[in-house]
Automatic annotation (TrEMBL):
Subcellular locations according to the entry: Cell membrane
Keyword Transport among UniProt keywords: no
Organism annotation: hydrothermal vent metagenome
Transmembrane segments annotated in the record for this chain: 23-45, 57-78, 98-121, 153-173, 179-201, 213-233, 253-276, 297-317
Family indicated by similarity: Belongs to the NrfD family.
Protein name, entry field: Polysulfide reductase
Record membrane topology: Multi-pass membrane protein
């Protein structure tokens, strides 16, 4: 299998592309869903929130998260060549197969997501529901909001890091085969989750809180990205050559250089750093102006765009990498 996917003979393998944009979107949405799970849990567990300790203060993102993951799994389904055999993933569990673990993780996180979403249903929506099974389920979930939030926080980390493990398990692709890649995807997933919280939050204090959180996440993301490049550069020749698309200013590799460096790191960091100065000069109860909210939301959009570009760049650049000498 590894010889097949690293074949470099132009006659035997005139065109070989394992994964395309559908997988890149799936990896992005999977990481985003994991980040939303964890960040929504943080919003409802953090000390000093506006609502009582046992009552949810954030409900939009928990409601969105199952939909985000379902859409991501839809793109993964589109990538399957033999779609009618998808059920076979759930006929067995292979302990040494990341894909087998992933297929089960994706299914098992849904009940936790939905239960947490139900626990955050606001009172205004509850008043519109008639007595019945759904209302009873919501009441039971609301009584366990904090335990469900803690469970979602952990499962969100597991889901986000799995998207990186899926790539790093491919030993035949030097760019992917790095133990740092899952950490990068975890960081990026948490950062995009925080960005989603900024976009969806209505309270200024919540926007400021997650802006501060996202600053640290982006600093961490930069560090991990540098370590990924450093690890590849100091590794054998195949790994060193795998990062050339990101540092080669040619017509073929120029999009990789610009997309990774500018969109995923420089612009989001430069904009978010401005809000560090804004938030440090005000109390948590400050009401942000329209301009401040617009700038903060624009920063969050750039973070989301950067997270998507990281997935696309690594998925495509990883398939350019190969071990030399194989043909």
């Amino acid at each position: 299998m590894e010889f097949t996917i690293t074949g470099a003979n132009a006659i035997t393998y005139p065109y070989l592309h394992i994964w395309d944009w559908r997988v890149a979107i799936y990896l992005f949405l999977g990481g985003l869903a994991g980040g939303c799970m964890s960040m929504a849990a943080v919003a409802n567990l953090r000390p000093g929130k506006e609502t009582p300790k046992s009552q949810a203060c954030c409900w939009r993102v928990p409601m969105m998260t199952p939909v985000i993951l379902a859409v991501g799994m839809g793109f993964l389904f589109l990538d399957l060549q033999l779609k009618q055999h998808m059920y076979r993933f759930y006929m067995t569990l292979q302990p040494l197969s990341p894909m087998s673990w992933g297929s089960w993780i994706l299914v098992l996180v849904f009940p936790a997501m939905i239960a947490f979403a139900l626990s955050t249903v606001p009172e205004s929506a509850m008043d519109k529901l008639k007595d019945g099974m759904i209302r009873n389920l919501i009441i039971k979930a609301q009584n366990s909001m904090r335990p469900l939030a803690k469970l979602n926080f952990l499962l969100g980390i597991l889901l986000a890091i799995y998207t990186g493990i899926l790539l790093s398990s491919f030993m035949a692709r030097p760019l992917w085969n790095s133990s740092i890649l899952p950490v990068l995807f975890l960081n990026s997933g948490m950062s995009t989750g925080a960005a989603t919280m900024i976009l969806m939050a209505r309270r200024s204090s919540v926007k400021l809180f997650f802006t501060k959180v996202d600053i640290w996440l982006i600093f961490s993301e930069i560090t991990v990205l540098v370590l990924l490049y450093y690890g590849q550069f100091t590794s054998p020749e195949a790994s060193r050559e795998s990062i050339l698309p990101f540092f080669t200013l040619t017509s073929q590799y120029f999009p990789y250089f610009i997309s990774i460096l500018t969109l995923s790191i420089v612009l989001p960091l430069a904009i978010i750093l401005k809000f560090l100065e804004i938030s440090s000069d005000h109390s948590e109860n400050i009401e942000l102006t329209f301009k401040q909210k617009f700038e903060m939301n624009a920063s969050a959009v750039l973070v989301l765009l950067g997270g998507a570009i990281i997935r696309f760049a690594l998925v495509y650049a990883g398939q350019l990498s190969k071990f030399t000498g194989l043909s």
